[in-house]
Every structure is written in structure tokens, then in C-alpha cells.
Amino acid sequence: MPLLHLSLPPHRLLVGRRRLFAPPTPPPSRHYCIRAAAEEACSLPFAPERASYHRELAAAAASVERACRLCVDVKKSLLSGGRKILEKNDQSPVTIADFGVQALVSFELQQLFPSIPLVAEEDSAFLRSSNPDDNSSNVLVESISSAVVDKVNNSGSNLSHHDVLRAIDRGGMDAVSFDSNPATYWVLDPIDGTKGFLKGDDALYVVGLALVVKGKVTAGVMGCPNWTDITIANEKEESNAACRGSGILMVSHVGCGTWSRDLSAEIGQFTTSQDVWKRCFVDHCSVVHMARFCIPDSQTWNMIPLSLLFSSTTDESDPKDENKILLQYACCGSLCKYLMVASGRASVFFSRARAKTQIKAWDHAVGVVCVQEAGDQ
């Protein structure tokens, strides 16, 4: 039985105020020679005959893996230039990586599946609103373009600034129009947990991409570059090497389960052997003090109502105590918590929503299908 159930109408939950109609795709301003889907796709741990959207998921996994590498490379240079960290209108941090991931994924999905629209978190309004007399705007777009060109396999002409901005806007607020029928569309969160991206190597952030078909989340991919398989560590073991890990790529398809493998070391080195994939299962622990709880690092245990009954510890080596629960602080975004639960690393995550909180598709869509399929055994 799935742990979570998503049944709200798609126009209310998945796209906010936007219901989807796929407009005719305008011809691109220039030709982009991206590898054929058969060459582009990652190998999946289940056969195409079992998954109706095997081709879409395989291509999505390859694109997310490249997007993760983009994030890693951008982060390496993040501190070398102060202009790489921006602030959106809602005061949340956004970086070149956010825009770069959205542009990269948008380019590749449009080439392979031009009839499937994209719903994503970012748009280029922030970049376009910069003072035209201020050269920083061009510097930012140039940095985003460089990051995308370095990762997308494009043997045609170099991408112009306009090409990059248009790719970002393909998933923006005005990219789709209203229609009464459910549509097939992608939902992308370029970086869920941007604050984690801006923090140290041990803070999790996720590139999340889901495919919605007739109002149901059907398939999805999550990539987390900072993921490590080390779950128990003492102070002597908490070195940068221990925290960094090799990253994780998680895929899920309705009826096929949830699976994960390490991210490839370099772009283009996609793993083809099915035995590197591991089936993911949720933790079936039903005893509170034996479970592992995941809460955002922006919150403390005493903010959770359950704290009236249980104290907490963050040390996994502590003896089990029926009056104490184990807390894990590694999550700066919603999808990070879904990743923890779908992988079985965390048993439960808390999400404290305010009464007027607007649920955003990209914060939950891919996480829901991954947890459902990891719990459907």
C-alpha cells in the first residue's frame, strides 16, 4: 500500500493557477543537434515492456544526471564570484545553477519530446528586469549560458543569451494556457533546497523532475549530488570525504518500483549494467522510538508537537531509548525529505504547513511517486 496518496485535481495542486494546454511548439531559432534518445537515455532497471513511459523516464534520468554535474561544477566556483548568488523577488536565494538546470533540462526535453510542455519553478523575469545599463545582467546570463553549453551535447551553433532565456521561460508562468482536460506535462524543480546548495558539502539539495499524465504523477527522477551511503558517523569520521559521497540518482515509474544508483563520475559515462541499480524500500518501522525522524534544518525538535512526549538525539550511536527519538538534519527542501524516506534512510518526515501555504507542484510531485513506489511492495 502506498504511504502517500495524491488525489487533488491537477489544476489545483500541480500547477497552481495554471491548467495546461500544450501550445504549438514554435520552430527554434536555430538547429540544435542533440543526441538521439536511444543514445541519450540512461539504462533503467526494468524492461520497456513493463513501463509505459520507459523512454521518457530514461531520457529524464540522463538529463537530471547532467544537471547534477552542472550543479557540482557551478558550486565549485560559487565562492570565487559574489555575483553568482542572487536573490529573487520572494527573497529566496537563487544561483546560476537554478537557471542553468532549468535551461538545460528544458532544451533536452523539448528536443526529444516537443509536444510535452514543462512546468517549472523559475522564469527569466528576474534576469530580464536587471538594469540594461548594468553589465552585471549580461555577465549573469553569460555565466548561465556557459554552464549549459558545457553540459548539453550540442554540436550546432553556440547558444545565444536569447536562446537560454527562452529555454528557461518554456517552463515559466506564462508558458501554458488554460484547458479543461488534464494534460501530459513535465514538472521540474531545478534545485530543491537552494539553501542547502549554498551551504557545506553535507547539506542535501535535489534536482527533481516528474512526468504527469492525465492528472497522475506517473514517473520521476531525483538527483542529489551530496548524497552519501554513510549513515552512522562519529566525530572522527566526519571528514569532508565522508560527507561528500558519490551522489545518488533515483528513478521511479508507476508499477515498476523505485530504484537508485550512484551518479556517474563524469558526464557521458552512463552506467549500462542493470545490477548497479538498487531497489528502494521505505522503512517499515512502526515503533516511534525506533524510527528515524527527518525535519528541516531550519526547525528544532521543540517546534514539533511530538516533542511533548519524546526528547531527541542526533547521534545514531546512542542506545535506543523509548523516551527519545533519533533526528536527522540534512534537509533544506521538500524533495530532500522525500528522498530520505523513499531510500529508507528516514522513517518519517515532518512538514509544518501554515494555513495559507500554497502547495507548489515542483516541491512534491516527483517525491510522491518515489515514496509511493518504494512503499508499494
How would you describe this protein?
The chain is 28% helix and 18% strand. The chain is of the alpha/beta class and 377 residues long. The strands form 3 sheets. A 7-stranded mixed sheet has the order 3-4-5-6-7-8-9, with helices on both faces. The protein has a 4-stranded parallel sheet with strand order 11-12-10-13. Strands 1-2 form a two-stranded antiparallel ribbon. 43% of the residues are buried.
Which terms would index this structure?
disordered N terminus; alpha/beta; 7-stranded mixed β-sheet; globular; single chain
Question: How do the strands of the widest beta sheet line up side by side?
Answer: 3-4-5-6-7-8-9
Distance between the termini: 7 Å
What sort of overall outline do the alpha carbons produce when their principal axes are compared?
globular
Oligomer: single chain
Radius of gyration from the alpha-carbon trace, in angstroms: 20 Å
Structural class: alpha/beta
Summarize the structure.
The protein is α/β, with parallel strands linked by helices. The chain has helices at residues 10-13, 37-40, 54-76, 96-112, 125-128, 136-151, 161-169, 194-198, 240-244, 334-342, 365-375, and strands spanning 85-87, 93-95, 118-120, 185-192, 206-213, 216-224, 248-253, 257-262, 278-279, 292-296, 311-313, 324-331, 348-349. The protein is built from eleven helices and 13 strands.
Write the layout of secondary structure elements.
Layout: H1 10-13, H2 37-40, H3 54-76, E1 85-87, E2 93-95, H4 96-112, E3 118-120, H5 125-128, H6 136-151, H7 161-169, E4 185-192, H8 194-198, E5 206-213, E6 216-224, H9 240-244, E7 248-253, E8 257-262, E9 278-279, E10 292-296, E11 311-313, E12 324-331, H10 334-342, E13 348-349, H11 365-375
Parallel strand pairs: 3-4, 10-12, 10-13, 11-12
Antiparallel strand pairs: 1-2, 4-5, 5-6, 6-7, 7-8, 8-9
